[in-house]
Amino acid sequence: MLSSNPQIYSCSLPDTFQADLPNLQKLCAGSRLPSGPLRRLSKLQSAHGEAFLHFAKSHSFVDDIYVAWVAQELKTDLLAESWQHSGQKLPSNCSLQYYVYNINLIGTPLNSTFHSIQDHSKWSVSMKEEVQWTCIGDLNRAAEQAWRSGGFICTQNKHIYSAFRSLVINYESCNDASTWI
To answer: Name one GO molecular function term (predicted).
Structure first.
């Protein structure tokens, strides 16, 4: 919460949890939390032992989270799906060691297809199937999103990866060409 410093619209925190969650209690009361780190990477583990990486950025980390941080930290090229219908869409980016390609076209198992401008989800998968990264988050690849707090949760679960990766039909290469998979 210190990195994302959420703006709370409505909140109800039962008395039982108030002592354990003092920062959430402050947010519910309308207070802002003290500034935290620009970004924070946390390693998490589920009750069943599954590993996750959580990327959280503050509004002060002004950059494309996909390119500047997630792809570089995971050490893999990413195919990124995000709503590309508002503001200034960011093109696929091949400027750093690991690239981020915008997905253009999604195909569902029922042979239905749709373009990214019709989809408000925010996720990415590794280009190479060997590493099987899947990330799901709350930031689009758009210039104005660089000033927003948010983040991604990433996993190498092969079933999640397979489900998301199989949806990708077409993506934008770095020379603006459309590439079919």
So the answer is: deoxyribonuclease II activity
Tell me: the pLDDT tens digits for 28-59? 888 777 677 889 999 999 999 999 999 999 98
Q: Is 159 a catalytic residue?
A: no
CA distance linking residue 149 with residue 178, whole number of Å: 31
Alpha-carbon distance 70 to 7, whole Å?
A: 24
- What is the pLDDT at residue 2? 54
Catalytic residue among 48, 59, 115, 120: 120
Cβ(24)–Cβ(16) below 8 Å: no
Q: How far apart are CA 124 and CA 165, in angstroms?
A: 9
Residue whose token pair is 């990330």: 135
122-161 exposure pattern, b = at least 16 Cβ within 10 A, e = fewer? bbbbbbeeeebbbbebebbbbeebbebbbbbbbbbbeebb
